[in-house]
Amino acid sequence: MSTITRGLRRIPALLTIAFLILITAYPLFWMFINSLKSNSDFLNNPSYALPEVWTWENYVTGWETANLSTTIVNSIIVTFPALILLVLFGTAAGYALEVLVFKGRGTILLLFLAGIMIPGQMIVLPLFTASFNIGITGSLLPLILIYTATGLPLTVFMMATYFRAIPREIFEASTIDGASMTRAFFSIGMPMMRNAILTVAIVQFFQIWNDLLFALIFAGQRKLNTIQVGLLNFSGEYGSINYGPLFAAICITVGGILVLYLVLNQQIIKGLAAGAVKG
Amino acid sequence: MKSVLGDRKAIVLLLTPALLVYTLIMLVPVLWSLGLTFFEGSPLGGFEFAGFDNFIRLFSDSAVWEALWFTIRYAILVTLFQVVLGYGLALLYNFVLRKSSVLVRTLVFFPVVLPTVAVSLLYQKIFQSAPTDGLVNELLVNVGLGSVDWLGAGTTAFVVIVIMDVWRSIGFYGILIFSGLLDIPDEIIESSRLDGASGFRLFRHIVLPMSLPIVFASFIFSINGTIKVFDSVFALTGGGPGDSTTPLTLYMYRTAFQYSDYGYGSTIALLLTMICLVVTLFIFRSSRRDITS
Amino acid sequence: MSTATSRRSRKALIGVALVGASALALVGCSGGSGGGSAPSSFEFLKNSENTTTEPVLNVLADGECKAENEKLPLEISSQPQADLDSQVQLLASQGGLPPMFSAGGNPAEGAKLADADVLVDFDKALTDLGVRDKIAPGAVSTIEKLYGGGFDFLPFQYNIEGIWYNTKIFSDNGWEVPTTWDELLDVAAKAKAAGYTPFSASGEQGWPITRLISTYLFRELGPDAMQKIADGDAKLTDPEYVKAAAAIADLGAKGYFGDNVASLDIDGSYNLFLTGKSPMIYMGSWILGNINGADNQVGAENMSFFPFPAVEGGAGSIDQYPANVGLPATFSKAAYSDDVASWLGCIATNYGTEALKQGQITGFVADPSASADLPEISQKVQETIADSTDSVLWFEALFPAKASQISSTSAALLVTGQMSPEEFMSTVQDAIDNP
């Protein structure tokens, strides 16, 4: 096969890739240029045009209106503890349900699976009533617990799926050295699941980070606002929106996430590479 | 040997935290809400026992059936696109781009990161028709077609919602399925290549069967997301114009929280949960059958 | 042996689950213990979209209400409008309402709070404090009409609605300010012929369109037209009501709202007016903020407003302005301590003047000198409000939440011909009958 024909055969693939990059990179660009426009510029000119005047003040206004110095901290305080609990509990339960043997594990797995189907709207009222009476509505604790619980079904289900692929003998063998199944989980199960844990953690991260439903109810007080709630501050009472500063605030938060994601992505690639050499 | 895997202490220790949190925060509130399906009223005015009234109302409420029809159309279309296009992406990453796919993967994944507010504003502007044409209408006008008021009518707004939600989630499904494809041992693919299998045959007989578990997992994940679609519709069209793009979740949300009729809202939520349950059990069963065969 | 262990562990699990459930249930039953005690701060829960009340309160807290603020510091929290009513009802059901909060964006939901007796009766409270005369009578009458007859909300905003117009376009083309519906149609036809979008209206929001229906009804049938619907004495499907919807649908059919009105959002509609592409917009006086703002390319001096014209032979009068109090705020009865009461007194006394200094028109009585620096058009509105004796409401004002929602999301369908006037009115009436 000559290099030319090989090159030609790659053209459809290259075109697909170019198209993919175009439709996903464009919004980034769109958001950035619109974050620098005045409101009248945004409304009067096509939204894909460059700004008439580069209004960098939008970033200052955006930061203040979205109350980012508070909301970023709150989003972090909520997301990471929830994520850690979620991954730890979920992986442990996935291991218990798929590797260990006991009666009723199929039922419990199904019980967790059922949780994927529960609409969040259905549990809001009871949870609010309960946390109000316990007296924790003035803190971020309810949100951490709720995100942990609502993320569990998917995590348990996915972890169980991943553990299913690993021969049980590996865990049994470890107990010959006298280790308990609990120790086998921490010393063998968790490390083997590194890829899966990262994948699940990333999925859950964005679910939690972008959640609005629970955040609205439980983080409505200004000192508890998460980023998503803060972004609503750009709407006016009669439906108008302060576009430039809103896009600026989104650019700031998304930029931060992008950096985090790029760092994590390196980790994922490493993890995946490590997984690929498995024998 | 079995007794080792039946380590009681390990089971309790590893399972209890998850089960406890899950039971307290999801199952109990669900049961609580289910109880409310037999009541009428709101937290403020108090609840009154209503027997099966809410269920009778559910079956005679045409808005529920319209919302259900929207939900079904949306869920089937979007789930199909998500999984099929996601699979296509994963194949592209794994077999065409191979090691150099990092940048493309990152970029295509990017829309997942964007907050719903941002995505919906973007799509409102791309499909805008008033006061000035957006990008799509501009293209249509340039090729000689008229401009369309995309979000001004139910049928065209539906198209925009589907495009938007497929666009924003496809990168995620690409990576999810890609991680499944990575688990297929290279030796198997190499050896079947040596046997003369290539292109579509390699895909049909080796790649597809071996990636079925992750495909099923994707289906379950996707369908449960799409049946529960809420924030993207809420932010893009608010369910309108009229109630032409109102899914069940939005109708439930409005009934419970804006019309403060929590009992009836819970009844709608119950219908929604039942649908999810049936669909998931169906996929779950067929996946179990396929894996064992 | 393995069976025995697993059975035991399952029992343990079920036990845990049951304990958890009953703990939650117990907690749930002990509800209502949260309220009653005197608040430790003057918390104001507002809708996050409201950006006008907070700056005024902040000035007061540093100035006239400094003493009150030192005793009970002002603390502001916010909730998006869409979720505010449900959040407030949840808090009310738990006895956990903050001392002051916004509520009743949908008047029917606000009236529910008044019915549940969780709000302060301002008639009595303000009289006790000796500041009852600090609330403008017109605003009080609007509040009483909206919220089931009581004076349970405070008018932190007071808006009148009418048609804002571009005086320059009118005079350049020699159009007269219309005083009757037919004259309005005449001007609209001329505007359309001259290449303008005669009326700028947001179909995406819907309410800018339904308000035209209700104001037409008030002019044609008299100020009690919508009260009759609320009381069940008339139906929206009655021919005289459908006629109003048909009149507005006809504006759409003639293209007076421009192409693609259905998806035009509120900013787009303001922008058409503020850039001179549209000579008229029906809107409330909150639009003054935009008219006096930097994005007005026509100039505030070239803008004015006229009342919605009369319908010939109609029972209503042209000087009955549609009025509203925006999304008002109120006080919680349970949290109404002495310190909160002194805050209320201070707000009632000083809010109107400070707000007017910031260019906001409220239902609190203000020192007239505070408006001296305001643009002419704002002063005109302020005077009109002060002089008006009678007001009317708007289309959805007395509807239950569901009918209100359906009405505004269906309005775009009405003016684009996707829904006939009969269908529109019967859909809304149906939602009123089955809330």
Automatic annotation (TrEMBL), chain A:
<dbReference type="Pfam" id="PF00528">
    <property type="entry name" value="BPD_transp_1"/>
</dbReference>
<feature type="transmembrane region" description="Helical">
    <location>
        <begin position="140"/>
        <end position="163"/>
    </location>
</feature>
<dbReference type="InterPro" id="IPR000515">
    <property type="entry name" value="MetI-like"/>
</dbReference>
<feature type="transmembrane region" description="Helical">
    <location>
        <begin position="240"/>
        <end position="264"/>
    </location>
</feature>
<keyword id="KW-1003">Cell membrane</keyword>
<feature type="domain" description="ABC transmembrane type-1">
    <location>
        <begin position="72"/>
        <end position="264"/>
    </location>
</feature>
<dbReference type="InterPro" id="IPR035906">
    <property type="entry name" value="MetI-like_sf"/>
</dbReference>
<comment type="similarity">
    <text>Belongs to the binding-protein-dependent transport system permease family.</text>
</comment>
<protein>
    <submittedName>
        <fullName>Carbohydrate ABC transporter membrane protein 2, CUT1 family</fullName>
    </submittedName>
</protein>
<keyword id="KW-0472">Membrane</keyword>
<dbReference type="GO" id="GO:0055085">
    <property type="term" value="P:transmembrane transport"/>
</dbReference>
<keyword id="KW-1133">Transmembrane helix</keyword>
<feature type="transmembrane region" description="Helical">
    <location>
        <begin position="108"/>
        <end position="128"/>
    </location>
</feature>
<feature type="transmembrane region" description="Helical">
    <location>
        <begin position="72"/>
        <end position="96"/>
    </location>
</feature>
<keyword id="KW-0812">Transmembrane</keyword>
TrEMBL record, chain B:
<protein>
    <submittedName>
        <fullName>Carbohydrate ABC transporter membrane protein 1, CUT1 family</fullName>
    </submittedName>
</protein>
<dbReference type="InterPro" id="IPR035906">
    <property type="entry name" value="MetI-like_sf"/>
</dbReference>
<keyword id="KW-0812">Transmembrane</keyword>
<dbReference type="InterPro" id="IPR000515">
    <property type="entry name" value="MetI-like"/>
</dbReference>
<feature type="transmembrane region" description="Helical">
    <location>
        <begin position="12"/>
        <end position="34"/>
    </location>
</feature>
<dbReference type="Pfam" id="PF00528">
    <property type="entry name" value="BPD_transp_1"/>
</dbReference>
<feature type="domain" description="ABC transmembrane type-1">
    <location>
        <begin position="68"/>
        <end position="283"/>
    </location>
</feature>
<comment type="similarity">
    <text>Belongs to the binding-protein-dependent transport system permease family.</text>
</comment>
<feature type="transmembrane region" description="Helical">
    <location>
        <begin position="74"/>
        <end position="95"/>
    </location>
</feature>
<keyword id="KW-0813">Transport</keyword>
<dbReference type="GO" id="GO:0005886">
    <property type="term" value="C:plasma membrane"/>
</dbReference>
<dbReference type="GO" id="GO:0055085">
    <property type="term" value="P:transmembrane transport"/>
</dbReference>
<keyword id="KW-0472">Membrane</keyword>
<feature type="transmembrane region" description="Helical">
    <location>
        <begin position="102"/>
        <end position="123"/>
    </location>
</feature>
<keyword id="KW-1003">Cell membrane</keyword>
Automatic annotation (TrEMBL), chain C:
<dbReference type="InterPro" id="IPR050490">
    <property type="entry name" value="Bact_solute-bd_prot1"/>
</dbReference>
<dbReference type="Pfam" id="PF01547">
    <property type="entry name" value="SBP_bac_1"/>
</dbReference>
<keyword id="KW-0813">Transport</keyword>
<feature type="signal peptide">
    <location>
        <begin position="1"/>
        <end position="27"/>
    </location>
</feature>
<keyword id="KW-0732">Signal</keyword>
<comment type="similarity">
    <text>Belongs to the bacterial solute-binding protein 1 family.</text>
</comment>
<dbReference type="InterPro" id="IPR006059">
    <property type="entry name" value="SBP"/>
</dbReference>
<protein>
    <submittedName>
        <fullName>Carbohydrate ABC transporter substrate-binding protein, CUT1 family</fullName>
    </submittedName>
</protein>
